[in-house]
Each structure stands twice: as C-alpha cells, then as structure tokens.
Amino acid sequence: MGLVCSCLSGGGGGGKRFRDQYQLGDKIGEGAFSVVRRATHRQTNVVYAVKCFKKVRLTEQDVKDIHGEVGLLKQMKHPNVLNLHGFFDEPEYYYTVMDLVEGGELFDRIVDKV
Question: Which GO terms label this protein's molecular function in UniProt (predicted)?
Fold first, then answer.
C-alpha cells in the first residue's frame, strides 16, 4: 500500500504525508482500535479530530473494517453526520481526519438526558 491511500477534499491532498499536513495535538479519546487526537491543518489552522490506528495492533479484519468505515463516510453528506476530510495509509499508522465536535461523548450526553 502507498503512503497516502486516499486524500479527500478539504483536509487532505497532494499525495503528502499526514505529518506534512497536520500537527498532532492532545489526546481527546480512545477506542478499541484507535486513539483520537486533535490535529491542526498546517496551512489553514483548522482543527480536526484524527483517529490514529497503529497497524501492528490490527488484525486483517480490523483493516477491512477501517476501510469499510472510510468508504461509508466518503459517501455520507449530511449536516448531522461527521465529515471525513482525509484518510492516510502510512507505514506505521492509518489516520482518519474528521470534523472535531466538542462537548464529550454522545452516549454520555444521551444518558444524562434520560
């Protein structure tokens, strides 16, 4: 696989590496397969949320699931759905660049209202 599997309009582009385009910031979350961090686009100073998937921790099925998620997000265009701005396939990590939404976990907010 190449350095940049896919770059999408807005956050990616030009076949550059992830770290050439983004400055990683604070950790804002963690899931079973990834760590989510803030990242600032170097040219625009727009801040995004970036899922960082360490490849050595992933199974073949995990990789298929990541590519499936990216494929679905590329197709979705709705104001209530996070936008995918870029997907990078680099030697040690996959990176997905998405809208940053402040305010904590959606699940926690739903539970608090019930």
Answer: ATP binding; metal ion binding; protein serine/threonine kinase activity
